[in-house]
Amino acid sequence: SRKLNNEVKKRGGGFSKLCALSPQLQEFIGVTELARTEVVKQLWAYIREKDLQDPNNRRNIVCDERLRALFGVDTINMFQMNKALSKHIWPLDSDDVISVKSTPKEKQRKQERTEDLDEPTRKEKRQKGGKSGFLAPLQLSDALIKFLGTGESALPRSDVIKRMWDYIKEKNLQDPSDKRRIICDEKLKELFDVDTFNGFTVTKLLVVHFLKT
């Protein structure tokens, strides 16, 4: 019905719908929620910036340390990457997922959209210079500088997220009964002013510690 269609549009659907990201993908990109299209776009920005495409076959990606941590392989082609991302991208609310039997035309359109995700756009290929959003250094608050303890006053958001998760794992702060729940030690309590938080909200908690310049 028209009402249902309008509701779906409001929510955002398909590849443009906001999704929850796995802890590994959070570490890589530096946010907890992102549309699948944006995840793919940022991955390709990283791949091109680090020049990780195999010169003999541009469809193959030679993984650096960060991509290996994400995908668990040394090399991956663009089609495998799209499939591998599925386990790192989850619906924010399973109630929003509506199973509909696709018609052949819809399946074709879906396939075309998937192929569009795999291939970097011409516009993106033309972009040169400058760091992508999740690689650009951001000014850190005094509290975050103190927490990290390295003296660095500016870091990319993705690096901060990675270090945050490294700290959480090193200190074994994940709730054994629910790994998504983080039980703060004194340092995290001082930084975030909470006793516990959901792992998906770490980026939101960090927002106040990234200063606008």
Describe the structure.
The chain has 213 residues and is α+β, with helices and mostly antiparallel strands. The protein folds into two domains: 2-126, SWIB/MDM2 domain (MDM2), CATH 1.10.245.10; 137-211, Orthogonal Bundle (MDM2). The protein has helices at 2-11, 23-29, 36-49, 65-71, 78-84, 104-118, 122-126, 142-148, 157-170, 186-192, 202-206, and strands spanning 18-21, 33-35, 53-54, 57-62, 75-77, 89-91, 137-140, 154-156, 174-175, 178-183, 196-198, 210-211. The strands form four sheets. It has a three-stranded antiparallel sheet. A hairpin with a 2-residue loop joins strand 9 (174-175) and strand 10 (178-183). It is globular, with a radius of gyration of 19 Å.
List the topology elements.
Layout: H1 2-11, E1 18-21, H2 23-29, E2 33-35, H3 36-49, E3 53-54, E4 57-62, H4 65-71, E5 75-77, H5 78-84, E6 89-91, H6 104-118, H7 122-126, E7 137-140, H8 142-148, E8 154-156, H9 157-170, E9 174-175, E10 178-183, H10 186-192, E11 196-198, H11 202-206, E12 210-211
Antiparallel strand pairs: 1-2, 1-6, 3-4, 4-5, 7-8, 7-12, 9-10, 10-11
Helix pairs in contact: 2-9, 5-6
